[in-house]
Each structure stands twice: as structure tokens, then as C-alpha cells.
Amino acid sequence: MTVLTILRGLPGSGKSTWAAAHADKAAVVSLDALRRMASGSLKAWHARASREDTRAIVDAAYLMVDRFLSGNRNVIMDAQNLDPRGTDRLERIAARHGARVEYRTFRLPLSELLERNRTRPEPDRVPESYLRRQYATWDATLDREPTLLDAMQVTPTVWVEPVPGELGVYACNFTRRAFARHKWDEYSSTARGLFLDKGGHVVARGFDKFFNIGENPETGLVNVLKRIGYPVRVERKMNGFLGLVSARGDGTLRYWTKSGQTDYSALVERLVGRFDTTALWQIAHDRDVTLLFEIIDHENDRHIISEPDSRAVFLHAVKNTRDFTLDPEADRMVRDLTGEPPLTVAVADTPGRLEAIIDREAGQPGVEGVVLYGADGTMAKVKTRFYLTVKSLRPPLEDILLNGKPMRIGGERGRLIRAILDGMPRERLLYTKTINGTPAVDMEEVGVWLTEHHLI
After folding, report:
1. Is the pLDDT of residue 3 over 80?
2. Could you tell me the domains of the chain?
3. pLDDT band for position 182 (50/70/90)?
4. How many Å apart are CA 242 and CA 316, to the nearest integer?
5. Quick one: CA dihedral 406, 409, 410, 411, positive or negative?
6. Contact between residue 302 and residue 276 where contact means Cβ atoms under 8 Å apart
7. What is the pTM for the complete model shown?
8. pLDDT value of position 219
9. In Å, what is the CA distance from 382 to each residue of 7, 166, 188, 364?
10. Do the Cβ atoms of 408 and 258 come closer than 8 Å?
11. What does DSSP say about strands 100-106 and 253-256: parallel, antiparallel, or unpaired?
12. CA 400, CA 416: separation in Å to the nearest integer?
């Protein structure tokens, strides 16, 4: 088995000396060597390197690690490797090639690091202020190996909080800023109902964040048709909220939402509890997966699409791993247990076939849409025009009916809102949530009423 040795330590701590002594056994990838190549010296690099320069150098180093490991060569990564997002990225590269990861940490007092830096040849010195900042930021992290939890905690577009009632378990999710400003990266998109223990191991997880066709440049229809792996499985998208069910070691199940233990967890437990929960625990525990259910609850959380009754619809079993991976065998076992048929509506083997399916599904009435599952793990959503139209009416209706704000909307949306306010009985337009006694706009009934009156 090939080995990736990740050296960790501040400038002057002895990493490069150690790497040079072991270069006969592994390829050495040195960030400082790349900086010297790009700028002539470390002093020059620190004087004028931009953020883009740094990104280019780091990407080049990781590409070299990837190429060496793909050729079955051992690799020594000679860099500070202090930011846990960097070490997480290196571990993922190693995992792709089946390489073992070993850490070697170099830690010295600040006074000795400063002295070593002063005695270096001038071109190889780093600014003392830089060394002091790095020490203040990272020295305390050198007492243990970095984890995925550390990487999530230092990512500004991710929030991490302890899960109430679950000792040593943390919920990760993307921030409002990430959502509002489309700040998506490998951490904010993964941190969507991701739960880690204090060692950084995955306890439970939902889907990675994935996007509607056309929501951003990467998910434009042409790009999706070109990039997604074929065959593509097309599944009906249900319209509720996501419930995550995972196994504790004591034989009990966690019934969580994407934020962990919340008021809505009781709804997950109530509806999933209609199945054989002992058997569900056995599957979730033995396969080490999280069971994902769409929770449709008429009493407490009415969405847009009309459903005949409250229920938990099984979606998929997801492996409790850092990267999103479905477990087809666990899927089969849960479907056998619950009697739920697969949600697949079509399979596309070519871009032309997929484009035709997308066009057909976008025009379906009374459903939310479909989810595309590419053979390469790529996922995307297609929302129907019906769903998008009704959803666009929810914020103004809530403002008018629940917050007492005046209506200032024209065009087609304004026409539909005026028709709803003039024509729908209030007892049909509003309902009270059983779970907390709060009033809400019944968007399910809005969609039904608009359809009945041929307004959409």
C-alpha cells in the first residue's frame, strides 16, 4: 500500500530537513520549493504573492500528490499543513488511490522558531510578523491530528453546533450567507445535515447540497447534459421536509431533521414509527447508513403539493462517510421492509433522452418535479412550472395574511394573489399547526384552488 506522509509544523520546525532525509523512499512535494520556483526566494514570495498566486501553488502541489499516488509512489507532503481543510483535501486524494495517510508533527517553542528563522540565509527567511501570526493561530492545534470537524469549524460559510441531548455530536450546516450569496464549496455543500462526533467521524448525514437546473452556471441545462454521468436515474421529488434516521449503539434510533434534534423531530419519529423500527435500526446499524425519509405532515407542515395523507416516504440509504455515497443494498432492504416502491420514473442513457425527460417533467401538473441521479454521483433537481408558480406566491401571501403588510405586487403574480384573496375562503386559505399552534398559509390548498379554477 502506498503511503502519503503529511508533515505538519510551522516554518523552521525541521519539516524540510526530515523530508530530504527520506526522499529516497518517497516523492517529496514541497510548497516552499514551488514558491521559490515562482518568485525566486521565500522572501520575495512573501513580499508580493497574491491570494491567487497562493491558490495556484497549492493546487499545483495537490495535483502532484495526486499524480504520484496514482503511479503507486509514496509521497511526503512538505508544507505547514495547519489548516484542516487542506489536510482534509489531502486525505480525500489519498482515499481515491487507496493510500494510507500518516502524520508527522514538528513542534518547537516560538523562541526557537524565531531564532532558526533569523539564522537562515536571508532569501529563505519568512517575515517575523508572519511567523508570529502563524504560531498564535495554529500552534495549539498541533497536539492532535486534524479532523473533518476541525475543517468544518474553520469554514466561514458553515456553522457547527452541539446537538442538544447527544453528547459529543455536532451538527454542521451551511450558513444563511452561503445560501443567500451562493457561496458553495466542498464544505458548505457537504454541510447540509452532516453530523460528526468529536473525532470527526460521520454519525449521520443527509444529501449534499444540490441545485435546480438553471439555478447557477454549473447547472445550466447544457452543462448538466454534458457533465452528468450516464445512465441517469430520474426519480420523483416528494414535497415535504427531510427526516434523517440513524442508529445509536444502544439500539435506539435518532430521528433528526437537517439541524439535528428539533421540534420537527417528533414528526419524523411519529411517521417513521409506523414501520418496524427494530428492523430499521438493524439495517442502519449494520450497514452504517443514514436512512433518509421525506416527511409529509398535513397537521404541522403543509407544503405545496397535495398529498392524500401524512406519511414518511423512504428516499435512500446514505453511507455515513465524508463523501456522499448511496448504499443500494441498504436501499433494497428498507424497501422490502416498508413496501415502498422505488421513486424512479425514467432512466436516460443519452443527453437527448435526458433532455426530453426534463422537458416533459417540467410541465407536469400537481407535482414538485424530479431529481436526477447521475452514474458519477452528480445530482440535480428539476422543478415543475406549476410548483415554481405556486411557491412564488407564498412570501407575499404570508406577508399579507400573517404580517399585515400591504400588497405591492403587480404583473402575473399580483393577478393570482388578488384572485386568491378575493375568491378563496379564509378557512381554506389558513390553517393552524398542531405542533405549536401557529397559523400558516395553506399553500397546498392554494395550489388546488388555482388548479380548480384553471388559473394555472
Report:
1. yes
2. 3-142 (3.40.50.300), 390-452 (no CATH)
3. confident
4. 11
5. negative
6. no
7. 0.88
8. 80
9. 45, 36, 22, 11
10. no
11. unpaired
12. 14
